[in-house]
Amino acid sequence: MQLVAKFLRDESGATAIEYGLIATLIALAIIVGAGALGNALNAQFTTVGTTVNSAS
């Protein structure tokens, strides 16, 4: 009976899950941000390339 009560009071597993969720959200934000940055850089280089080609 004491083993069950000790198991129910133990919150270390919940803490590990919370840290995992936080790490997942941070990784997702980095991935989305990197994708947006890549798209913005691609558009900028396309603009520069078009300008250079039309100038020559």
UniProtKB/TrEMBL annotation:
**Pfam families annotated for this entry?**
Flp_Fap
Regions that span the bilayer: 21-41
Q: Write out the entry's keywords from A to Z.
A: Membrane, Transmembrane, Transmembrane helix
Protein name per UniProt:
Fimbrial protein
- Species per Swiss-Prot/TrEMBL record: Mesorhizobium kowhaii
